[in-house]
Specification:
The protein has 111 residues and is α/β, with parallel strands linked by helices. 25% of the residues lie in helices and 11% in strands.
Length: 111
């Protein structure tokens, strides 16, 4: 992204969805979010593009193991707050949240 920002600003759209290294695990129950770590991954977007200004962070939760509805969501909520703060400070418009379970086995339930 950083290396190609001049070219990206020539494209005929005003926003993109940004992947970052921890995008598939940063909201998982085993991840402890750290502002500095996430900002080092997303922060380079801050004021990088001139025309392409409506950008979003892409977050997938399915591969990291989703929190069960009956489990403790405290860490996941904290991770989401820190991620939102990083996105705000990096100048992103928001978060694209994808909760689909990619590559995780589905549990068949029969009654």
């Amino acid at each position: 992204m950083v290396a190609n920002h001049t070219y990206i600003d020539t494209l005929p759209f005003d926003g993109i969805v940004v992947k970052f290294p921890d995008n598939q695990k940063c909201l998982g129950p085993g991840y402890v979010a750290n502002y500095n770590t996430l900002y080092s991954q997303i922060g380079p977007m801050h004021n990088l593009l001139v025309k392409v200004r409506h950008n979003y962070a892409n977050v997938l939760i399915g591969n990291s193991g989703m929190v069960d509805p009956f489990d403790d969501w405290t860490q996941t909520q904290t991770n989401f707050v820190i991620l939102a703060q990083v996105c705000r400070d990096a100048g992103l418009d928001g978060i694209i949240y994808d909760s689909e379970e990619y590559g995780c086995p589905y549990v068949a339930v029969s009654y």
